[in-house]
């Protein structure tokens, strides 16, 4: 990775550099499981490897690779998690670095859409129990196998 495209005070850039939670590294993108505290087993985050702030910052190579990822990742995640739906979200405001959230919603889950981000805040504040990191290990192994 070319470090001249990394912003030192960017949370996403630092996570990419650290390799924390890495599931797969693409040419232009970095895929990881959401960090602790974990609100949903299988919640993945896809980050642009260079610092870019929003959809309009993508170049042609990045957008083409994103298209390929969007063709395979949701299918693999749905298969591995037995989800009925895979949500895809990108806001890029609280963390101004282009990234996408892939959130599996299972049949038994009552929350819908934006409620998952409310859940994430509740888990961070301790109002709701987090998923143990050990519970995600098997899922991460399976998604790695499925994507490679």
UniProtKB/TrEMBL annotation:
HIT domain sequence ranges: 44-112
Any one Gene Ontology molecular-function term assigned to this protein's record: catalytic activity
Motif Histidine triad motif mapped to chain: 97-101
Residues annotated as signal peptide: none
Biological process annotations from GO: nucleotide metabolic process
One Pfam family here: HIT
Protein's UniProt name: HIT domain-containing protein
Protein source organism: Candidatus Staskawiczbacteria bacterium RIFOXYB1_FULL_37_44
Origin organism lineage: Bacteria, Candidatus Staskawicziibacteriota
């Amino acid at each position: 990775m070319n470090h001249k495209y990394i912003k030192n005070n960017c949370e996403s850039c630092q996570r990419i550099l650290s390799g924390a939670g890495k599931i797969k590294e693409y040419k232009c993108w970095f895929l990881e499981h959401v960090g602790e505290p974990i609100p949903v087993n299988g919640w993945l985050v896809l980050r642009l490897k260079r610092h870019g702030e929003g959809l309009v910052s993508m170049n042609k190579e990045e957008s083409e690779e994103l298209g390929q990822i969007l063709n395979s990742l949701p299918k693999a995640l749905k298969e591995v998690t037995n989800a009925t739906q895979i949500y895809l979200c990108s806001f890029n405001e609280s963390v101004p670095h282009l990234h996408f959230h892939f959130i599996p919603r299972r049949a038994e889950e009552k929350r819908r859409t934006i409620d998952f981000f409310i859940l994430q805040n509740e888990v961070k504040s301790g109002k709701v129990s987090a998923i143990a990191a050990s519970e995600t290990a098997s899922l991460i192994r399976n998604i790695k196998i499925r994507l490679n």
